[in-house]
Amino acid sequence: MKNALLSELFEQMADIMEILGEDRFRINSYRKVARIISDMPSDVEMALATGRLAETPGIGKSSLAKIEEFLKTGTITAHKELLKKIPPTLLELLTIPGMGPKGVKAIYEKLKVTSIAELKDAIASGAVAELSGFGDKKAAGIAKGIEFLERATGRIRLDQALEAADLVIAELEGLAGIQRMQEAGSVRRRAETIGDVDILVAANKGKRIIEAFTKAPFVQEVLAAGATKGSAMIRTESCPVHVDVRVVPRESFGAAAQYFTGSKQHNVRLREIAVKAKLKLNEYGLFKGKRTIAGAVEEEIYQKLGLDYIGPMLREDRGEVEAAKNHCLPEAVESEDIKGDLHVHTNASDGNCDISELARAAKKLGYKYICVTDHSKSSAIASGLSPKELGRQIKQIRRLNEQLKGITILAGTEVDILADSSLDFDNKLLAELDFVIAAIHSGLASPREKVTTRTLKAMDNPYVHCISHPTGRLIGQREAMDIDIAAVVKHAAETGTALEVNANPWRLDLKDTHCKMAIEAGVKLAIGTDAHSIEQLGLMGFGVATAARGWATQADVLNTLSAEKMKSWAASKRKR
Ligand code: DGT
Ligand code: CA
Ligand code: CA
Fold first, then answer.
1. Do 273 and 243 belong to one domain?
2. From the alpha carbon of 194, which atom of ligand 1 is closest?
3. Are 450 and 485 part of one and the same domain?
4. 3-class DSSP assignment, residue 203
5. Single pTM value for the model
């Protein structure tokens, strides 16, 4: 689907026009088009072909023409014209967390700053703080944003990496001579961010495979192309991605998969074991003198080293080697174990479809239940529900449950934890719900004590079953709250509150190491997609992988329970 890229182009046109101080009405209409396209559950190309796009309110004639132009040519002339009007580095300022087009406009017009490097100088000289509407606090905030950006640079989100991996694998799949092919590196380990994407191929004629890769239509820049390894920057819908493809002979595919999946630290531990056993382990195989003991099959490498097989998601040297030796590795939770989604939004708040559409889509995914968790009224930007509206929604859900077969809708909420630690709905209303998740959506930058106290107090409430996205981070965009996660985990155990693993690849929060802490403390994990559309119900796998990376088994995850057991788990906190 070209939706993401197209939406971004419209957003960028609006940004540039705003920086240039152009017509507000057109700016807003471009932003609206961007939003419509990115929220669209179906392919924009299809929507255009069927005429549905032309009928969509908010898509005018001129926008439609631009969309057509993009789908035909891959570019939009108006976008190219706008780009010519500003210095090319100016747009990088918009990637700084907390910097919007208004801020960029001021800094560009008044200080003639055109790049991040120049902005850093302007902050250091005090010029930014002196600008009207900025001040010391805002200047320091921007400096922090730049620091964050620089630290994050070069790594991409897991969903972006998987998109690239899928693209390359699909391109190579049909080639003659490929015996095996799979992901390796951090992508195969399902790490939360990815430096580069590694693909491993078993074939005899490496050069031809590498050539096919480096000449693929999505390749932007070839970084290296040899007989067994190719590296390139490839274009995906969301961002440029560095991909390494390696070709190895079939006899050493298992050893290569083991070696190139890593992590480096995990590999170091394995090699130590090999050395102790007077063996040699490398990417070609496991050897005793000149004799090959294992090589073609990855499982055999572990077996011959006296270890149980360690799944890729555990290979981080966090105790998995010891556990494999002692035969006590966790049996990782899998997507098939998940019986329902505990965090979804409908168009009653900021989602884009209604309850029954979501329920039907969830049923198709094989779920037994979904829990509708729209926002509460304090989340005004997310069109949160008033108590009255939630009351009506509960009734609507009860009615729908009588009609729908094969899936249960649980009535829930994602209630705001307010600044004074109280909740946005009173207990009488919360008591009517099947499952309540509570979250901080404001004041994320407050001091450690404040955000921690807010979270602990929310867990004290007998009607709060789960804390959603407990640290509030957005990968590559917003830092986590400075929350005392050890205290949160401890109190979750004390109060019988679950902690969410938010499956959205921007969040993955709790993250893997936090999941492990929670599980060790006996806290249940609740995996939710935080879906705002039907498509996003499909994000569950990211949450499952994150939980598995945190050593979660089926028993550690609340939504592996049946709907009935889920409900009685929820009721049990209220009886404590
Ligand atoms: P990334 O790309 O930063 O997200 O992380 P990885 O783990 O994919 O790292 P990458 O792409 O540099 O290398 C892929 C795997 O190859 C890595 O996980 C382990 C293996 N590897 C690479 N360099 C070394 C090394 O110097 N020593 C060892 N033992 N293994 C290495
Ligand atoms: Ca990598
Ligand atoms: Ca690599």
1. no
2. 4
3. yes
4. strand
5. 0.80
